[in-house]
Write a structure and sequence with these properties.
- This protein is an all-alpha fold.
- It has two helices and no strands.
- The chain has one domain.
Length: about 170
């Protein structure tokens, strides 16, 4: 076995250390700032994302609170509208009831007037019929009484005397 491959010489080690140092120097000078800058940008991006997520969470909570308040206000408004509708319907019903009562009173009054008029008309017709009947009866009696000439002259004289007295 060849030990030269396993144990390097002093010159090789020296140049390897120099090459390594130059590589580390170049990486520290040019590569490391880019890596650090990229890591910082990534860290800022993550922090901004976390802040945005927190802000979104707060906004969501605020929206939920606003939604609940709007629901409460809508419920109150709905209850108020229902109450107003109920009061309006009760008012309309009461007005209708009053108008119906007034109309009923007016109809009853008109019926009373109509009945009174018809009653007066019936009494007037009854009086006319009784007068006509009385005239007919008187006519028949006079015809019977005046059938005899002596009785007729006596009756006429008596009536003429009554007329002069008045």
């Amino acid at each position: 076995m060849d030990s030269a491959l396993i144990t390097p010489g002093l010159g090789v080690i020296f140049w390897m250390v120099i090459s390594f140092a130059i590589l580390v120097f170049i990486l520290l000078k040019f590569g490391w700032p880019v890596v650090i800058k990229t890591l910082k940008e990534r860290e800022e991006s993550i922090n901004n994302s976390l802040l945005a997520a927190e802000k979104a969470k707060d906004e969501l909570l605020q929206l939920q609170t606003n939604r609940e308040e709007l629901q409460k206000e809508a419920k109150i408004e709905r209850d108020e509208m229902l109450r107003n509708a109920r009061l309006t319907s009760e008012k309309i019903i009461e007005e209708s009831r009053l108008k119906a009562a007034e109309e009923a009173d007016r109809i009853v009054e008109m019926a009373k007037q109509s009945i009174e008029y018809e009653k007066m008309q019936a009494l007037h017709d009854l009086k006319n019929q009784m007068a006509n009947l009385s005239i007919e009866i008187a006519e028949k009696l006079l015809k019977q009484e005046l059938a005899d000439k002596e009785k007729a002259s006596a009756f006429i004289k008596q009536e003429l005397e009554n007329v002069h007295l008045n």
